[in-house]
Structures are given as structure tokens and as C-alpha cells.
Design a protein that fits this description.
about 70 residues; mainly alpha; about 55% helix; single chain
């Protein structure tokens, strides 16, 4: 069975790691805000074809013949 000291050490270590990751993510705040400004204009995309709906991707498909 684990002793109380080992459990307390593990919890302290987890809190320390979580705090460091939180700081790291917060340091990228400006990058995240800048990336939110860049969006694609979905209205300019071509309409999906029928094969796209059925198969999940577009194109023509032919049988591959191997000698």
C-alpha cells in the first residue's frame, strides 16, 4: 500500500506539471487570438458532387487492371 507521503508527493507533482502547462498555454494567448482572425470563406467552395456524398471524396473511379 502507498504511504501518505508518496501520495502527497504525486499530487504535488501533478499540480506543478498542470501549472506549468497552464502557463505555457497562456503564453500563447496572442497566437491563438491572431489565428482566430483567419477564416476560410466557405461560400467560395465548389458544391459537392454526388460521389462525394456517397464515398466521402470526389473524383472518377475506374477499375485497375493488373497484368
Amino acid at each position: 500500500m502507498l504511504s501518505f507521503d508518496i501520495l502527497r508527493y504525486n499530487v504535488t507533482l501533478l499540480v506543478l506539471v498542470a501549472d506549468r502547462w497552464k502557463g505555457k498555454i497562456e503564453s500563447y494567448h496572442d497566437v491563438f487570438v491572431e489565428r482566430e482572425k483567419h477564416r476560410s470563406d466557405e461560400s467560395r467552395r465548389p458544391e459537392q458532387s454526388r460521389s462525394s456524398d456517397l464515398l466521402g471524396f470526389e473524383g472518377t473511379f475506374r477499375k485497375l487492371e493488373i497484368d
